Amino acid sequence: MPQGWPERLWIVRHGESAGNVARAAAQAARQARIDIAERDVDVPLSALGERQSCTLGRWFGRMPPTARPDIVFSSPYRRARHTATLIREQASLSQEPGSFLLDERLREKEFGVLDRLTGHGIAQQYPEQAEFRHSLGKFYHRPPGGESWCDVILRLRSALDSMCLRHGGRRVLIVGHQVVVLCLRYLLEGLTEEEILAIDREGDIVNCGVTEYVFDPGHGLDGGLVLRHYNLTAPLELEDTPLTAQPHGGAPR
Fold this sequence. Notes:
The chain is α/β, with parallel strands linked by helices. It has a single domain, classed as 3-Layer(aba) Sandwich (Rossmann fold). It contains nine helices and six strands. The chain has a six-stranded mixed sheet with strand order 3-2-4-1-5-6, sandwiched between helices. The longest helix is centred in the middle third of the chain and has 19 residues, at 149-167.
């Protein structure tokens, strides 16, 4: 039977964005609202985020050509698209049609009415939502107009099925967001709510941090992907590129 899984799968969080910087400033000042002018989909990379993306691209580029990603998927959000573009350029990845694909199912979690609010702002303006989130937990809590982690997982399950159907046996790179990395771990490793939230509590995913899976034909009934690295920062540290891990969006960790 043809292999249904990618031969290798890398999942990367985008480089530091202007939204990450604005959120950190708002949190430090205990402000209610994050000062971002653009729609979330249009938030750009910061100058450091561009540097991180180029550094990671050069890390991929130091791999033998036969080991580098040959298919790149990206969230359509500007910060992820720009990260993926810089990685492809610096790594000299394929520029052939079909080698770079945007997939809206890889987009950031939608925060609904909580968008652009800090934890302080949520407690002030939507205390009932803060209570709902506390009682339900972040895995199941869906703010009005937004998504729960379960909602994200449902669309990622579909995206993963599409990748396996069309790109089995290939080397695939996904560029997305922190919640995308975590929810893909949930799916690929068959984790429980408690297990993935425990991983989340260990710390935020570094901007341009690398999570890597390799195909193991002996894993499961028909083979499967096995985690090799999670939140790998060595590619950035090799060039002394500063590490950042500020979450984005309106919901507190």
